[in-house]
Write a structure and sequence with these properties.
Structural class: alpha+beta
Shape: globular
Length: 388
C-alpha cells in the first residue's frame, strides 16, 4: 500500500480515468471537480463520443486505443453497465485524399481488420449516408460509440468503491508547489498533497496561464430519423475526410432513432480569435453554427428530420502539435499534467490515466517512454496530415 497522498484536479475523461487507475493501485487519491462528475459543460459533454481503432493520427496511438478498450470492458463488468455500443466506424473520402490514405496506411501498417468499401457497397450497407460519386469508405469493425456521462460516472463510482474521495463544487484558486509536494487553495482553504495532477481540460490555463494550449468549441446537433435505419449497425459512427470538402461526423445514439451530427468548421477557436476565451463563450449554438449544421446535415444524411432537437458547443483544449500533455510540469517535480488532448481525449483517456498512475507510482518514466507527449517537448507542426 503506497503512502502517497495524490490529488486529481478536474474529473473529466482523463481525470476520472486517472482517479480510478490510482485507486486500483491502493494509493490515497482525492478527486476535485468544479461542477459535478459527468456534467455537460466540459469536453466530455454531448452524450457520446466515437471510438475507432484505425487511427490516421499514427500507429503511436494504437496500443493506447487497444488498452483503453480493454479498460472499458473491465469497467462494464465491474459496474454491470453497458458503456460501449459496437457497430464499427466508417471513414469516407476520395481514394487520393491525404487523410483517407493516412487511415488506410495505418490499418495496413498495424495489420488491423478493415474493409475497403465502394460507394455502391456503402449505399447497400449504410443507406442513410449520402456518399459522393467519387468517394469510397474504409470500415473499422472495432469502432463504435461511447456513452460519455455514464462512463465518467461509472469510473468515479468504481474509484470510490476502491477508496477514492471525490469533492464536487470544488473551486481551486491557487496551486503552490513546495519542496515536499503541492499545496492547493480549495474553496478558500489550503490542502497539501504529495503529488497533484491537473486534468482540467480547457480550464487549464485558468490555473496555469503559460500552458501551451488553445481551446475551441465544436458545435454539435441532435436529430431524429424519420424511419428505421439509424441503429449503430446500419448507421455507424462515420467521419467524412475528403480533401477540399466539409468534414462531417455522425454518431448514432443507443435507441436507434436519434443521432448526433457535427461538422469540422463549426467551431469557435482561440487560435483564430485572440479575444475569445472558449470556457467563457456561449454553450448554445450560435446562428452561424446552426446554419452550418443544418446545411451540411442535408448533404450528409437522408431519411432524417432536419429539425435540430438539441445541441450546443463544448470546449476542448488543443496543443500546438495536437498531441497530449502528459507528464511532470517542470520545474515542479510534484505537479503533473494530463490535458491538451486535442480531440483525442475520450477514446484514449483510460490508457492515459493508467500511464499517469504508473508514473506517479514510479513504475515508468513518461518522458522516456512517451516523449511525444512530454510537456517539455519542442512543439512542431502536427504530424497528422489532417489538422484537427
Amino acid at each position: 500500500m503506497s503512502k502517497l497522498k495524490v490529488a486529481v484536479v478536474g474529473l473529466g475523461a482523463v481525470g476520472c480515468a486517472t482517479l480510478l487507475a490510482l485507486a486500483r493501485k491502493g494509493i490515497e487519491v482525492h478527486g476535485f471537480e468544479q461542477f459535478r462528475v459527468g456534467n455537460n459543460f466540459g469536453a466530455s459533454g454531448g452524450r457520446t463520443r466515437q471510438h475507432r481503432l484505425i487511427y490516421g493520427e499514427g500507429g503511436l496511438y494504437t496500443p493506447l486505443l487497444q488498452r483503453s478498450q480493454a479498460l472499458w470492458q473491465q469497467l462494464e463488468e465491474e459496474q454491470q453497465q453497458k458503456l460501449f455500443y459496437a457497430g464499427g466506424f466508417l471513414t469516407l473520402g476520395t481514394p487520393d485524399s491525404p487523410w483517407f490514405l493516412a487511415v488506410e496506411h495505418s490499418a495496413q501498417q498495424q495489420a488491423l481488420p478493415h474493409e475497403r468499401l465502394s460507394r455502391q457497397e456503402i449505399n447497400q450497407r449504410f443507406p442513410r449516408l449520402n456518399v459522393d460519386k467519387d468517394e469510397i469508405g474504409l470500415f473499422d469493425p472495432a469502432g463504435g460509440i461511447l456513452l460519455t456521462h455514464e462512463l465518467l460516472l461509472a469510473s468515479a463510482q468504481q474509484a470510490q468503491s476502491l477508496g477514492a474521495v471525490i469533492q464536487e463544487d470544488a473551486k481551486i484558486t491557487a496551486i503552490i508547489p513546495t519542496e515536499q509536494g503541492v499545496a492547493l487553495t480549495l474553496n478558500g482553504e489550503k490542502q497539501e498533497f504529495d503529488e497533484v495532477i491537473i486534468s482540467t481540460g480547457a480550464w487549464g490555463k485558468n490555473l496555469l496561464p503559460q500552458l501551451p494550449i488553445a481551446s475551441r468549441r465544436l458545435g454539435m446537433s441532435f436529430h431524429i430519423g424519420k424511419s428505421d435505419g439509424f441503429d449503430s449497425h446500419l448507421f455507424p459512427a462515420t467521419m467524412r475526410v475528403t480533401a477540399g470538402r466539409p468534414m462531417w461526423n455522425t454518431q448514432p445514439l443507443p435507441d436507434g432513432k436519434h443521432f448526433k451530427f457535427f461538422v469540422g468548421d463549426a467551431e469557435l477557436d482561440e487560435q483564430h480569435d485572440p479575444q475569445l476565451v472558449a470556457t467563457d463563450a456561449t454553450a448554445s449554438l450560435t446562428p452561424v453554427l446552426y446554419q452550418r449544421l443544418d446545411r451540411h446535415l442535408a448533404e450528409a444524411v437522408n431519411g432524417a428530420h432536419r429539425t435540430i432537437i438539441g445541441g450546443g458547443t463544448w470546449p476542448e483544449a488543443y496543443t500546438f502539435d495536437q498531441a497530449p500533455l502528459l507528464g511532470r510540469h517542470q520545474p515542479h517535480s510534484h505537479l503533473w499534467l494530463g490535458l491538451g488532448l486535442s480531440g483525442h481525449g475520450f477514446k484514449l483517456a483510460p490508457a492515459l490515466g493508467e500511464l499517469l498512475a504508473q508514473a506517479i507510482n514510479n513504475e515508468i518514466n513518461l518522458d522516456t517512454a512517451w516523449p511525444a507527449f512530454s510537456p517539455e517537448r519542442q512543439f512542431a507542426d502536427p504530424q497528422a496530415v489532417y489538422s484537427r
